[in-house]
Amino acid sequence: MRVFIAVDISSNALAKLQKEILSTTGWDPGHVKPVEPHNFHFTLIFLGEISDHDVDRIKEMLAGFSFEPFTITYSEIGAFPKPAHARVVWVGVDSEGAQKLTGLANDVVAKMSELGFKADKPFSAHMTLLRSKDRPISASHICSKYQGQTFGSDWIDKVHLKKSELTPSGPKYSNVYTVEAKK
What residues make up the domain containing 78? Predict the structure, then answer.
């Protein structure tokens, strides 16, 4: 089973922002694919292909995991690897929300490291909005246009162990296990 641990996003403002970006840029839908709004999430750690036994161990570890809920506010638009030649266009998070989200990710990674899992890269408080399918796009004007703006907020109160199934029409995610924040 291909799995990761993530925080889901419920903000309708991001779907609206995604549509606005696509309509103002004129990017060809054959070359730029929006992330489906029901797939919006922050990956805290990608665990990869694992056995059912490992899934059970992860669920057991997460059962004892505790965190307090918090709010994040979406701000700024960025692009990877760089705005002039982007493969990914993302939305960031306010500094306080990013700090809390990073702390949550670090706590989850520490728990997973006890089971022998390692993060493949450090956590970055960004969420992918659009992906270039076959060649880099110039997103510099979009990054400049939205500099300093905010796009709504979300209440972070659940962490999910998610299963990822790769299909020709895009990834399909389902929750395998959920941890709710302490109130």
Answer: 2-180
Strands 85-93 and 126-132: antiparallel
Is 85 labeled as catalytic in the residue annotation? no
Q: Decide if 160 is catalytic.
A: no
Catalytic member of 31, 41, 53, 160: 41
CATH of the domain at 169: 3.90.1140.10
In tens, the pLDDT along 81-129 reads: 999 999 999 999 999 999 999 999 999 999 999 999 999 889 999 999 9
Q: Classify the C-alpha dihedral 43-13-129-101 as positive or negative.
A: negative
Q: How many domains does the chain have?
A: 1
Selecting among 31, 38, 126, 141, the annotated active-site residue is: 126
